[in-house]
User: What shape does this take?
Amino acid sequence: MTEQGCSVHSYTSRKQAYEERATNAVILEIQGSPETMLNLSSKKPTTMRIEKRLKELAESSDVFFTGPFTSESILMHRLVFKENYFTEFSFTEQLTADSTDWYYARVVQTNGSLAWSSPIWVGQD
Assistant: This one.
């Protein structure tokens, strides 16, 4: 990985995939202008090159098929800006010597979907 790019090797196949869920994802945090070009190249199952400007991905997702419909495909998701995926908070509580408490974070995303963490158990040693 460099400031100019990175290389990712990933295997995804629809054949014999567990529960027919043959997805792999690569999530990138990119800094750039709307004119920044994202270049994606693939060697298998076919050689292809995809170029998208960040401003295009800010407007909508895009799907690219490696052959006729139902063949392997690549989905480039619409950009999610940092203010829509990052938050911080802090919480302070006084524990008693004999208590064990648990907490979880539950959030409502800007699109209305919910997200939550697993319980976090807190107690005295």
